[in-house]
Specification:
29% of the residues lie in helices and 38% in strands. By secondary structure, it is α+β, with helices and mostly antiparallel strands. It has a single domain (28-189), classed as Immunoglobulin-like (Sandwich), CATH 2.60.40. Strands 1, 2, 3, 4, 5, 6, 7, 8, 9 and 10 form a ten-stranded mixed beta sheet that branches. The longest helix has 24 residues, at 2-25. The relative contact order is 0.14.
Length: 194
């Protein structure tokens, strides 16, 4: 009987110790997801975390507030934010997360432009397509996002046959990346169609 009690006590101590170790290695990730074009919150946006291209966690932003708040014990190197009919926004090259909390503040997602446009003349079509290509090139160079105390650069890139906006975590941590006025840049990048 004494042996059984001691075995049970040892198992309980192991469970408590493993939970303490789990709590020490876990990190809380918080923030909100909104649309670039109009700053409206993206209620129910998908948030996925990855390590070496393997899915680690998957949650959805809150349906009432657009916020997300979750804790992960796994090391991650990428967070993907997605929403229907929008380019995914990917925060990549995450390493050395210092502390127990990662506050992403506000992550922007960019709607995929609607391409169902009819033109009155071929000249109008050529002009619109030329403007669309120029806007697309600007998106590839990057959009500077001002999010609270943090400014970051999103670049449109094509990887694995799909376009997405990529944010390098090093740039995301740097608070002095802005070279253009945010409001001026938003008016330059807004587009009707691609």
């Amino acid at each position: 009987m004494k042996n059984r009690i001691s075995v049970v006590l040892i198992l309980l101590m192991m469970i408590v110790l493993s939970q303490n170790i789990f709590a020490q290695n876990s990190i809380k990730i918080i923030g909100k997801v909104s649309f670039f074009e109009n700053d409206e919150l993206a209620y129910g946006a998908n948030i996925e975390t990855y390590k070496n291209n393997q899915l680690v966690d998957k949650i959805n932003a809150d349906l009432k507030s657009g916020n997300f708040d979750f804790t992960t014990s796994n090391k991650i190197d990428k967070i993907v934010f997605s929403f229907s009919y929008c380019y995914s926004t990917i925060l990549e090259n995450i390493n050395n997360l210092n502390g127990k909390k990662l506050d992403l503040n506000e992550i922007k997602i960019y709607a995929i432009p609607n391409t169902f446009t009819r033109y009155a003349t071929k000249e109008a079509e050529r002009k619109d397509r030329k403007e669309s290509r120029q806007k697309f090139r600007k998106l590839k160079k990057g959009i500077i996002i001002k999010s609270g105390k943090r400014n970051y650069l999103m670049r449109l890139k094509k990887r694995n046959g799909e376009y997405a906006f990529y944010i390098d975590f090093k740039d995301f941590q740097n608070k002095k990346i802005v070279s253009l006025n945010y409001s001026q840049q938003r008016t330059k990048v807004k587009s009707k169609s691609f």
